[in-house]
């Protein structure tokens, strides 16, 4: 095999010799010099030539680096992948017993070493990109260093990087010889494969770029990057002397897409296309894309840090270090000359960009690191981590240990005097968590799922949460994505349970899966979740946890019970991520909604004058939310009410949530309006200005058909319309009509019979009401009504229900596109005094007279205006051969009516209709709903912080269904983070607990590590509870005060309740304990018996009396219980 001509090839013999005779060698060389690909091959070939055994492992910080290098070597050497060379990344393992050179991620090697407590499985360990100071990298270096000096002295360790601080690492791996430390050997690889030219903003003559101080990408900087790409085309065209129009082929490269998608960046672009890779810092290390020529670097990075106050994680945008930027520069210049454009000024680069990034061990959570330290059993975590390259602070280690005790991974001492804040005994739960490639709380979810008999569902949730973004929101279509996710989640009220149901969907629901837009259309994310699910199943089997191969028969009641148990399990796993809702002022809310139903109505503000003119526009703004039933106006407000399905009578409509979601997404709601002055000018001095502040109501529901005089329905009898109606009637009555498949209800469109001249035919109709065994129907194509027996109604075929008819155009406005019947109202008429005296508005005699004038005869109408789809008209009928009579005049002359002016709406409607006025754009505010819920954290540290739910959650919009309930309802979050300044908490993957009185307090007492019950001043009843890690008796301070939760009971609890809670905690402990009688040694039958026992105890909540909450006089203070005469003592909890 002929090695490629790279800088490192000139040092092959020297490097091989150095590695052979030194325990630790540090190799520094430019990117592209061949460290990652060539040096391990040199060692493999050397040992092969000498017929000596070797087993070489090379670590890479990222999956794509490990897999791509292994594939490249197998291709270059014509070896089968998985033969001599292979790779192992995450769950993907392409390794056999014959493999001698394996590339793997840092985390995989660390897991192997921690499990074995030795390095002797390998002869050579190459740790690449050691400049990346992740917590895994630093802990790996710590463990390797420790084992090299104990039980693995003959293993060779090679550290490699292009930007390593050689002295720091050389001193860290110094070898003690005769009471003296000798630094590790450092070898510098000279030369670079190709030159790389660097440019800064100062060098861009024709591009303007703003000054900046905060780490951010402005719109102007994006424009600079785009302009550079265009300039690259011009430069390349000059070089190759071709005239062509370059098109762009864009690839994304980041950690949340699958490995297959990441590998697309290595594809050769189509001729005539420029390949553009939009990458995070995943491309900083060991990813060689041969055709990269230009690098545009914003010099930014997102880093995960722990908030100083809350210790919650926060992802912040910071300036990247010079080390990282130099690594990015190395992506170019691999096979030809490269160019790097840094979008900062040269002096800013020199003076403000840091040399090195802050190691993760100093800024990130240490939970998994401390658990691995406990598995190694090499002393206290504090002592072991003190030997790290950059040790974390004692305070960070102490806080991590306390949080692990809160989770249950480390045991809490029974004697508070002996509680060690820096260490604790590893529990059964801690051993499980240390073996799982998931977050600690997600691992606890799996264990509790085993306890309560819902292990499979919890494994699915764990795999989906760890894989991230199981539901993919379409780009720029967040409203559609949210609607689909809400639709899919149904009434489950949980993002996590929605994940379970989505994963379990099979072939019959494939179309539904496509609607919710799972990635790649072929469910590639589902595949990744399935693979992790199998990995988790395999890992927990060593702890005697198995998914039931024969699931029980699931009737409707079982499904609901299982759902409740799953919600309780999530509450236990995600403790203390608990939140309650702030109480809304109902009196204020009722006033804000002006008496409208909060479950069907949203409020818009900044409505322009004469808002009723823009009814159609307002209606169209909410078309994608649901069917608008009505819009009412009051000054600058509009109340949009949606139509309710009869089955949704007592809950907030999805349309309301969708409308509020539009506000959260800041969807601009624009109206094209007329100038008020021009409207008034067109009205020629009429008293229209009073219209600006008057309340109006527009109702579009056809379910209420008015019976007043002058209000009637009709249809056109011109030749074209008559032909359409005849054709429609003939088609309907030639079909084989089927009975209704659903129960008849108001608003249902169907086919109904109507008898006329001994002909009984079916016509399109809408049900108005269902009194008894008959229905009152409205024939939508003719405008008449009739009562029909329910068994005579027929199902309407979909093509007839949606069949478009001629569009009746009045004054340039289209109305009633799917109905031939039109609604009319006589204009300029009102009841006379005689009618008002003899009846309600209109007398019976007047009604009969009007009916005799208009029923079953041809009428001619002259349109005056159109108001809310009702035609205000003059109506004429033929009295003789040529005489035309005005119906209004007849009613006036006979004393049933008198002349009147039309309403302002009608007058304005006709004025606007006949003229084209200049349009203005008004931006509306909202939608709002005063019953929308605000969240409050239950923990001490966060109770005054703002709380927001991620926008993809089904709970990102929450409207109170029962504001009258006096008791609390709880929401649980799987994870949370804070914004950059720590003022707002962001919740992810939330679950809304059932509205059961006392449930928040009950679950908090069940899953809190330590509780102290509050009693009234007489000591006779419980009033609340303080939950947390307890307090230091010697110091007199709380152990973990930031996570303490103070709750006031809103239902009655007594001693029996506390005893039952203790019994349930004992039942849980029996399934998660170590020792000879522990969980690992339980038989399958005994395990099932204990699981059923825990389930039954959980499913036995009793009704409790609702009481007024009484807050403790000294909230968040421990050791307040004093045993008085007749007092109730706090029960000890396990």
Provide structural commentary.
The protein has 34 helices and 47 strands. Strand 20 and strand 21 (637-642) form a beta hairpin. Helix 11 packs across helix 14, helix 15 packs antiparallel against helix 21 and helix 21 (556-573) crosses helix 32.
List keywords for this structure.
disordered C terminus, eight-stranded mixed beta sheet, Rossmann fold, 47 strands, 34 helices, globular, 32% helix, five-stranded mixed beta sheet, 1134 residues, alpha/beta, Alpha-Beta Plaits
Write the layout of secondary structure elements.
Layout: H1 12-21, E1 24-29, H2 35-49, E2 56-60, H3 63-77, E3 85-89, E4 92-94, E5 101-105, H4 106-116, E6 124-128, H5 135-148, E7 156-161, H6 166-172, E8 175-177, E9 180-182, E10 185-189, E11 196-199, H7 219-240, E12 247-253, H8 259-262, E13 273-279, E14 294-297, E15 300-306, E16 313-319, H9 322-329, E17 338-342, H10 346-351, H11 367-376, H12 381-385, H13 394-407, H14 428-435, H15 440-451, H16 455-467, H17 478-489, H18 495-504, H19 510-515, H20 524-540, H21 556-573, E18 578-581, H22 586-593, E19 601-605, H23 615-621, E20 628-634, E21 637-642, H24 654-664, E22 670-674, H25 676-682, E23 696-699, E24 711-715, H26 719-734, E25 749-756, E26 759-769, E27 774-779, E28 785-789, H27 798-801, E29 808-810, E30 813-815, E31 821-826, E32 829-831, H28 833-838, H29 844-854, E33 859-867, E34 870-878, E35 884-886, H30 887-893, E36 897-899, H31 904-913, E37 919-923, E38 925-928, E39 935-937, E40 946-949, E41 970-978, E42 984-992, H32 999-1007, E43 1010-1015, E44 1022-1028, E45 1031-1032, E46 1037-1038, E47 1045-1048, H33 1055-1070, ...
Parallel strand pairs: 1-7, 1-10, 2-5, 2-6, 3-5, 6-7, 11-17, 12-13, 14-17, 31-34, 40-42
Antiparallel strand pairs: 3-4, 8-9, 15-16, 18-39, 18-41, 19-21, 19-38, 20-21, 20-23, 22-37, 24-31, 25-26, 26-27, 27-28, 29-30, 32-36, 33-34, 34-35, 41-42, 43-44, 44-47, 45-46
